UniProtKB/TrEMBL annotation:
UniProt source species: Devosia rhodophyticola
InterPro entries named in the record: Cit_transptr-like_dom, DASS-Related_Transporters, RCK_C, RCK_C_sf
Domain RCK C-terminal: from-to ranges: 206-291, 296-381
Membrane-spanning residues: 5-22, 28-44, 56-75, 95-122, 134-152, 172-194, 397-428, 440-458, 470-495, 501-522, 529-547, 567-587
Bilayer topology term: Multi-pass membrane protein
Keyword Transmembrane (UniProt): yes
Entry keyword Transferase: no
UniProtKB keywords: Membrane, Repeat, Transmembrane, Transmembrane helix, Transport
Protein name: SLC13 family permease
């Protein structure tokens, strides 16, 4: 072993130990490892930042933004209401989510399948009042298992098909992977369904802030219009959209006459509804019900990228005290709308513009974010910590889902690379205002992207120093002393172990020729060994860095580096125990 190889292994081993220790944030660990690698000479300075232009960083960042845009559209809530309205038990929800993402991943890129299902996972988690962390990692693992089932499911399968063609003149077909991959997917989903409690319940770092400032009794008003989905339907049907977290407190007819909001009361064109509840539930009532907020002039006169929503508390010396929005002629003077008001232990039945403001009232204000901070200071209003509230914002319905579907189709048919397709999709999400430019960068999860970009050149040092050749020689020597099933298992385990440091495509390029040469030397057919490499490279369940799907759920799930092995280790062992006998059965060695 040369000095450079020893240094490369040492840097990676120490880095992994610090990751598992978990006391230092993962992006800082990765950046530190990169600096050390540069310092000891195993990463050249001119290649130090090549990771920032790597496809994996582009794919993960773009997929996070695309997923956020799909979530913001509200279409996933409609899908849940229509196709899975009664799924409230966490285990049933988990099985449904993992099954869908697993099947989808067999036919489209698993990163795309996962991107479209993450918003549904968040909706289901809110519905059953559990942490999304119970769903997201099993879904990521399910997407990896689904990719094993077909040739197009994952990059390793495509690459081993090419290697087989170079060796034998015959490639693997689309469904040659299905007998073994299908069994592994079925077994894997069953394991995930019974062992998900191995995962700790994690929350995003900003979730505690959200809980601390959560306002539950906002009051707003909205109007039933001719295009409303709830026109001529009952109050009960509208309130059902809020999942019990919002209610109608008063109905004002077109003639100004009040009606009691009984559950069977019919909603008519022109009715003005006083709504009370949590902001997210109010947003569902307005968005899915097709209601019109009473005053949306701000959206007509302000550029979309400058519009924002802010929560603020009326201070004790505020000039707003004792006045109503009508008294203030608020929009005409400032270009700001009051979307909702909250006052402790008070239920409003007056119209929103008629409520006189008091010290301590919490206002939901919508306006030009370039001017709102100055206005809040002038009014002596204290802004709360920023939350992603959507009440009053414009959504583009099916457009985000359509953009994602096109991106997935382009990658499935090999028309454009995955990175280009998802980068294009993310750009279109912003251009179509499916997600405001102001919000877009908040969804990119910079710590995750920095970690990936810093790790890529560190991991590549294994190849540049000849470390991978050293591993290959060691594997060949060890495998020659083992029985066939032992050698097959060793190849699969080695591919699993190397994948976090080389990514799955590079792992196959390194390991597949080794596996084929070893099989030929011993007089075996190479197919089972090539399949073992593909399965091992496609099944990185131990870390968040071996596959972009695992990386993608790390931020939204609030996971730590060491959380992955809790569920991933037993799943990896089961994949080896089931996969090796299945390979020997389906692909005989002689």
């Amino acid at each position: 072993m040369t000095t450079d190889q020893l240094l490369s292994f040492s840097v990676i081993i120490v880095m992994m130990l610090v990751f598992i220790w978990g006391k230092v944030r993962y992006d800082i660990v990765a950046a530190g490892a990169l600096l050390v690698a540069i310092g000891v000479g195993i990463v050249k300075p001119e290649h130090a930042f090549s990771g920032f232009s790597d496809d994996i960083v582009i794919i993960v960042g773009s997929a996070l933004l695309v997923s956020a845009a799909v979530s913001r559209s509200g279409i996933m809530e409609v899908i849940i209401q229509r196709f899975a309205p009664n799924l409230t038990h966490p285990r049933v929800q988990l099985i449904a989510l993992v099954l869908v993402v697993t099947v989808l991943s067999a036919f489209v890129k698993n990163i795309g399948a996962l991107a479209i299902m993450i918003p549904i996972a968040f909706q289901m988690a809110r519905k059953s009042k559990v942490s999304p962390s119970l769903f997201l990692m099993p879904m990521s693992f399910g997407s990896l298992l689904g990719g094993l089932m077909t040739q197009v499911g994952t990059s390793p399968n495509i690459i081993v098909s090419r290697v087989r063609y170079e060796l034998t003149g015959e490639t693997f077909s689309m469904f040659d992977f299905t007998p073994v991959g299908g069994v592994l997917a079925i077994v894997g989903v069953a394991v995930l369904a019974v062992s998900y409690k191995l995962l700790p319940e994690r929350e995003r770092e900003d979730s505690s802030i959200d809980e601390a400032i959560k306002i539950k009794n906002y009051t707003t008003e909205a109007q039933v219009v001719a295009e409303s989905a709830v026109l001529d339907k009952t109050v009960g049907e509208l309130q059902k959209l809020g999942g019990g977290q919002a209610m109608i407190t008063a109905i004002l007819g077109e003639n100004g006459r009040r009606r009691t909001p009984l559950p069977d009361a019919i909603l008519r064109d022109g009715d003005i509804l006083m709504l009370e509840g949590e902001p997210e539930a109010l947003d569902k009532l307005v968005g899915q019900g097709g209601l019109s907020l009473s005053d949306r002039k701000v959206d007509m006169v302000t550029p979309a990228d400058d519009i924002g929503t802010v929560e603020a508390i009326v201070g004790k010396s505020s000039a707003l005290i004792g006045l109503s929005a009508q008294d203030l002629t608020l929009f005409d003077r400032t270009g700001v709308n009051i979307l909702a008001i909250s006052r402790r232990d008070i239920r409003f039945t007056k119209r929103l513009g008629e409520i006189q403001l008091q010290n301590g009232d919490v206002l939901l204000l919508r306006g030009n974010m370039n001017y709102l901070p100055n206005l809040l200071r002038q009014w002596d209003c204290l802004p709360l910590a920023e939350r992603k509230l959507q009440l009053g914002s414009v959504r583009n319905g099916l457009i985000p889902v359509g953009i994602l579907a096109v991106a997935m189709a382009l990658t499935a048919f090999g028309i454009v690379p995955v990175a280009v397709a998802f980068f294009g999709a993310a750009t279109l999400m912003v251009l179509t205002r499916s997600i405001p430019l102001r919000e877009a960068y908040t969804h990119l999860d910079a710590p995750i992207l920095v970690m990936l970009a810093a790790l890529i050149p560190v991991s590549e040092s294994l190849q540049t120093t000849g470390g991978t050749e050293l591993i290959a020689d060691w594997l060949s020597g060890l495998a020659s002393t083992l029985p066939p099933y032992g050698a097959l298992a060793l190849i699969m385990v080695a591919a699993m172990a190397v994948t976090p440091f080389l990514n799955n495509a590079a792992t196959v390029l390194v390991m597949a020729p080794i596996a084929a040469t070893f099989a030929t030397t011993l007089g075996f057919r190479p197919e089972a060994f090539l399949m073992a490499v593909a399965i091992g490279a496609g099944c990185d369940f131990l870390t968040p860095i071996g596959h972009q799907c695992n990386t993608m759920v790390m931020g939204p799930g609030g996971y730590r580096f060491g959380d992955y092995w809790r569920l991933g280790l037993p799943l990896s062992i089961i994949v080896v125990l089931v996969g090796v006998p299945m390979l020997l059965l389906v692909w005989p060695l002689s």
